[in-house]
Amino acid sequence: MSKKGHFGGYGGQFIPETLYPAVRALEEAYPKIIKTKSFQSELKALLKDYVGRPSPLYKATRLSEAVGCSVYLKREDLNHTGAHKINNTIGQILLAKHMGKKRIIAETGAGQHGVATATVCALMGLKCVVYMGEEDVNRQALNAYRMKLLGAELIPVSHGSKTLKDATTEAIRDWMLNVDDTYYLIGSVVGPHPYPTIVRDFQAIIGKESKRQMRAMTGGLPTAVIACVGGGSNAMGIFHSFVKEKSVRLIAVEAGGEGLSSGHHSASLQKGQSGILHGAKSYLLQTKTGQVQLAHSISAGLDYPGVGPELSFLKDEGRMEVMSATDKQALAACQWVSRLEGIIPALETSHAFAALKQLKGSVKKSDHIIVNVSGRGDKDMETLMAHDKDTAS
Amino acid sequence: MKITKALMPFLTYGDPTPALSLVAIEACLKAGADVIEVGVPFSDPVADGPTIQASHQRALAETPDLSVQDVIKGISPLVTKYGKPIFLMLSVNLINHMGSEVFFKQLEKGGVSGAIIPDLLMEESAEYRKWAKKTGRVIADFITPVTPPTRIQKIVAQSNGFIYLIASTGITGVRDRVDQSLKSITKTIRAVKNVPIAVGFGISTPEHVTSVLEFADGAIVGSALVAQLAQAGRSKSAIQSTMSQAIKNLKGLSPE
Ligand SMILES: Cc1ncc(COP(=O)(O)O)c(C=O)c1O
Prior knowledge:
The structure holds 2 protein chains of 2 kinds. Chain A is of the alpha/beta class. Chain A is built from 17 helices and 14 strands. In chain A, the strands form 4 sheets. In chain A, strands 3-4-14-9-10-13 form a 6-stranded mixed sheet, sandwiched between helices. In chain A, α9 crosses α11. Chain A is globular. The model of chain B has no long low-confidence stretch (mean pLDDT 93). The longest helix of chain B is centred in the N-terminal third of the chain and has 15 residues. By secondary structure, chain B is of the alpha/beta class. In chain B, β1, α1 and β2 form a beta-alpha-beta unit. Chain B is built from 11 helices and 9 strands. At the A-B interface, α8 and β11 of A face α2 and α4 of B. Bound molecules: pyridoxal-5'-phosphate.
């Protein structure tokens, strides 16, 4: 990090003055609280007994055969609530509790972060309000209901694109009106400093475990690590421990939607320019006059025009490769993995598998590739059923 | 920068159309507005409330490729004609996108006094301030009821324009009372430096304006005017009379 809260030229705190005291308080509290014994022991116990960590690193034999190298799956889909999102919400809810906050707000796209937030709020007995775009409420109806069942108040957002971008804007507005008692629990490595760092730190356990498990299984490091990118939390989570290991390829997979040249995609790193949205500078999809462009992806969790500042930086540094998978490729990859391994990945995660498929032919037999299985596909059944014709074999 | 006992209306450029928004702005100037804030529509105006966000959306639906340059070109003739300070209020991304050098040079060329950037903290503002200074423009500095006193001192010390004092925490929108703690914040500000103070966010009635101008130099009225303009529809004469009446009303002048 160069300047405070910056990753190269990205990141920072682009927020209204009204939010300054709240963001500053978080910035001061975070490093102090996470150092305390009580925080660390609570976190450790919950990750183990409530989330079910460590998640397995599984050698996928049939997938390995199909690709032509050793493929390992980091099973974040086996976490409680079915995705990596809970690693972050457990950490942040403890932080909120230690800061004495009584009311938790969150934004959600696919609903995984909303569910993970509603879950930890139920666990801690805290009031929970989740903002979700109307379009996402419809296409992720199951998750919308799960949040309600968990006791959260779900507020559908009906302006703009009615997706994650607008849910985030609405959550920030709520925070401005209720800064005193409210903790904003962001779901990805986005937002003003210190959020990208906090979320990355709480997700870094994915990479830490993977590295240790890989060593135990193969005696060495992986050749490559692949993760899908919405805001970038599962990617930063698994990449963080490998950034300094220069031999390890870090591959981020964006949602190519209807194709990178169609204008309907969420490929911020490949098609965006430096921009400022939701409190930080990063790659951002924009029109030629600087309006934020609507993103598109079949997976609600990747449907976001921005991306985390640290990923923006890693791309510019040349440390991370960026690939993409279209809606169709993701759907096909979902079926491919389901039938080869008996694991139904989330549509977000299916983008990472689609990229793995694209690597076939360029990999060596001796390569060891880890795919971050960020979540499971249960929430996507309706979308998958609706597209069954496209994927029918 | 001189602002005294000023009524400062805010309107969104392009709502309902670029030409009609200029009609509305001109009606405000004719009716005695002292300073104008022109909002540049943005797809994701995080610091604005529902009324102004809806106004931004109407403007962008009408003119999707509206640019900051278009706004500056549009309002520039009104600067010349009325000689009153005009500021652009816009999200930082719009400036970042065109580059701060180009932005401030265009403000200078168009005679626009400066920029109000609601999502730019002092800590991130160096590059923007540099070009504002080089072009003789001003960046307004925000202070809110929750800004700690030590921070108020820092903000005021480096201010070269005016202080935009937020009347209540939260986003823009119509509120029914003016927070009395504002008076004491005003004292804290003046103890550092004699810089003009304009109060905004939630100012909507003539009573608000009168009570604000007892201790501050300017009263900013946004959402209330934007809502009235929306009621006036797309008729030029209805817009002129609605805006003119609204400004006279806010100034405490009896209706004609
Ligand atoms: C299963 C899954 N994977 C990935 C993502 C994308 O988020 P991120 O890029 O922050 O990991 C989501 C977001 O909802 C998700 O639910």
